[in-house]
Give the backbone structure.
Amino acid sequence: MLKILSRNFKATVPAILISVSLWAASCSSSPTNLRALAPSETLIYLETNNLGAALRSVFESRPIKESAVKVPDLSVLDGVQAAVAITGFEMQEQKLTEEQSVGKVMPKFALIADTHKWNYQARAFAEAKFGAFVADIYGSEPKLEKSEKAGGSYFAWTAADGRKAFALVIDGLIYFGNDEGLIDHCIAVRKGEGTAFDAKSLHPSAPTDLAYGYISPDGMAQIANVLGVRLAAESTEEGEVRSAIAGILPKLIRGAVKDVHWTTKKKDDKIEDRWEIDMPNEVAAVFAETMTPADGQADASLAALIPASARSATIYNLKTPQVAWRSVVLTAEHLSDPFTARVFSEIGTALFEPYGIGEPEKFLSSIDGRIVTVSLAEDQAAAIVKPSTNGQLQGLLPELDPAAKKQGDAETLDVAVQYTGNLAVVGEKDTVSACVAGGARSDIADVLFAADPGSVSTISKDDAAIKAIASFLGDERTANRANVFSLSRTDFSKSGVVRTTTSDLGFIGQIIAMLSDDN
């Protein structure tokens, strides 16, 4: 979900926030309640009360130091407050060639920043830096028109293709966005002539928070529509299947999710991101029961099969995996209709196929509790399980059925299954071979199995994020290789889902990495 959305938004809001690091000099003033400045139509709200501290948590992290990349001076950002209000999305057609074009989803947003600087400094920054951003975003040097509006300095940029961006600077506050009407609404809210965003659903701001985000129920509905369209567009299936994906996913997300809260803070030398996904009571109650964690400690032999080359590993620590999967399918039917549930089940079955599994229900009924998945690369994954039915797995793809195999078939298959002791490994054939081969084991397995995994836990290590951040900073040629570690835990309760991730770079670091031209 994050990656799909970031492709469309990466050149706008996040880049603007980070670029403020080029700006210096300040004057003092008391903190501003940014929530009271956002307009009532806000669907998604993001804020930080100290942009310097938020970015420093990333740029002063262990892997950034090990990479030796040159980072910007962040001291000039201390105390700068910034908020982003997204009020909707629109689809724009972007031509690739004369015959081909793609749909690009753009947010309708307003950035509100209290610089706590003198107004002339804020005005100079807006004119110079935002103009450069508009040129970069729209791919051409924009025409700038300057005027006075609402007692402040107003800027309007127009790109060669007619797209526009706007900024207002008043009393050290900067408003920037891509919709003039939205800027006007923000001005009206500030003057008390418009209705402000109803912030009652938001969590109270805490001094330890580096940043906070909120997605409203209407915001979730719009994101669901965006995801449905994007996933359908990227699907390799036929037109009818694409249409089904585009229609089914939004319906299920709207029915299963009420709103989302995100909070990030420092935790020792790491960054903790907490995602709280609130669900309707009846949906949350079902998952709280069916996603119950398994009793006791996980079998250490499962960890022993995670190879040193593993990029990530996940443990599904469920008491009854078959019941858990069945509850997902039945909830889909409850939220929609039998046809939608059947299509969703078929889509879900397709997710099991890279692991050599053709019938999820049958497979899950043939294993004993926990499942560990291992990934070596994007298309290389396998599952490690303990068979419970005569030591053999059920529900595998037909080509993995020993009775159906023909001489020489094994050499042409992309998937494989191997048994070792009382365990089985099934999935992409090279990953399966790496799991059952002797040799060094992965250090990430020790961390994954040492902690209480909740219902689901994932650990990963990868140097891709550091490479991307180095590229964004223009230092990719000299940057040292450095791995980024991340440990996520997912729990289910009667109010919804809580996913807590402790990592080197945090969600903010992921956003910065996505700003690289390589993504």
Q: What stands out?
A: The longest helix spans residues 119-138.
